């Protein structure tokens, strides 16, 4: 993957356990873990990423 501009999750506190997100080619959204940003990179379509965020927010509200 070409050099990406990673953005750290706003829910991340201090430390190495954060999710980073970057836009990619052809509208793909990339996600990776901050402890190894060049390691495992997950690619998702905007629709799939939106669905993931919606599901996570829904689960968070259930608590």
Question: Could you explain how this protein is built, in words?
Answer:
Residues 4-57 form the DUF397 domain. It comes from Streptomyces lutosisoli. It is a single chain. This protein has 63 residues and is an alpha+beta fold. It has one domain (7-62). The protein contains one helix and four strands; from the N terminus they run ββββα. The chain has a four-stranded antiparallel sheet with strand order 1-2-3-4. A hairpin with a 7-residue loop joins β3 and β4. The relative contact order is 0.16.
SSE diagram, text form:
Blueprint: E1 7-8, E2 19-23, E3 29-33, E4 41-44, H1 46-62
Antiparallel strand pairs: 1-2, 2-3, 3-4
The geometry reads as flat
**Mean of residue pLDDT values:** 80
> What is the C-alpha radius of gyration, as a whole number of Å?
12 Å
Report the uncertain regions.
none
Number of strands: 4
Class of secondary structure makeup: alpha+beta
Q: What is the helical fraction, as a range of percent? A: 25-40%
């Amino acid at each position: 993957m070409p050099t990406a501009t990673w953005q750290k999750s706003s829910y991340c506190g201090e430390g190495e356990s954060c999710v980073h997100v970057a836009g990619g080619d052809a509208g793909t959204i990339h996600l990776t873990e901050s402890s190894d940003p060049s390691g495992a990179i997950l690619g998702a379509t905007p629709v799939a990423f939106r669905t993931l965020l919606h599901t996570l927010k829904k689960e968070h509200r259930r608590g």
